[in-house]
Design brief:
alpha+beta, 2 domains
Length: about 280
């Protein structure tokens, strides 16, 4: 149930329309690092090579000093999304991507991020807020990638169970991959994306907070989905991609990525070791 803008905290409402920008150069080293983390032999990306879809997120990342980080490793105030005292738990709910032109190693790029909207809703565990932030990535040829992120603000509570759990039998998929979310993979992904959220790599922190294990990054799962697609159908050029997070996937067991053609699109599911849906996604060419 949607409750309307009048219930959204003032700090969030006043952030609508805020724009932040960053500039970077796409270099080969982070790309080679993530290729290695994903198990690709002898990665040797070169100047002029196009970035795989979603890998623009390795660049124009926020570089904040320690005093601007909270206990959880996240920014206290990024200057873009202010804190909401009544809704202190911030989660990544999903994203949509429009790949309009390739970004290549060697490109100088600019990222503009804009706070677009906030909606407050009523869920099973109480009220929560969905914020939408749009990121626009450009190179010397113009706009290349438009990304929209859904950020969920939740009230302080016990460990979230997440949405989308489904332990029903899963049919066979056209393509599938079973992955072990070991701490090395999760640390390397956090490092190459400069993601300092402790829930992804700090075992003592997650134990103290009562989580069953390290949380597998949603963007890691999404990139692994497209890595599977590139391996199985290398001629599929992704123009659009979207994903929605479901039940959290922790490193307490293997998880599976399933992919199936659906008309001109590819649909994905990520399932934890118990068969719960952790993410759904869709790619189109």
């Amino acid at each position: 149930m949607q409750l309307g803008m009048s219930s959204v905290p003032h700090t969030l409402k006043t952030a609508i329309g805020t724009i932040a920008s960053a500039e970077d150069v796409i270099t080969a080293a982070p790309v080679a690092g993530l290729l290695a983390a994903f198990g690709h032999d002898d990665p040797d990306p070169k100047r002029g090579d196009p970035l795989p879809p979603l890998w623009h997120g390795l660049f124009c990342t926020a570089k904040l000093p320690p005093e601007r980080l909270g206990e959880d490793g996240l920014a206290k105030d990024e200057g873009l999304l202010p804190a909401a005292v009544e809704f202190p738990n911030k989660l990544f709910g999903g994203a949509r991507f429009d790949f309009r032109a390739p970004l290549r190693i060697g490109d100088s790029i600019r990222k503009e991020s804009e706070v677009v909207s906030f909606d407050i809703k009523e869920g099973r565990t109480g009220a929560f807020i969905v914020g939408m932030v749009q990121h626009r990535f450009s190179n010397g040829d113009g706009l290349a990638v438009v990304e929209e992120n859904d950020i969920i603000f939740r009230q302080a509570s016990a460990v979230p169970a997440g949405d989308g759990g489904d332990t029903s039998e899963v049919p066979d998929a056209t393509w599938s991959r079973t992955l072990t979310p070991d701490p090395v993979l999760m640390f390397r992904h956090s490092a190459v994306t400069f993601n300092s959220h402790r829930i992804h790599y700090d075992r003592d922190y997650v134990r103290e907070k009562g989580y069953p294990g390290l949380l597998v990054q949603g963007t890691l799962i999404a990139r692994l989905m497209l890595d599977l697609l590139a391996a199985e159908k290398p001629d599929f050029n992704v123009d659009k991609f979207s994903f929605r997070s479901g039940r959290p996937i922790y490193d307490d067991g293997d998880f599976r990525i399933l992919a199936d053609p659906d008309g001109g699109e590819i649909v994905f599911r990520a399932l934890d070791h118990a068969g719960n849906t952790g993410m759904t996604a869709r790619a189109s060419a």
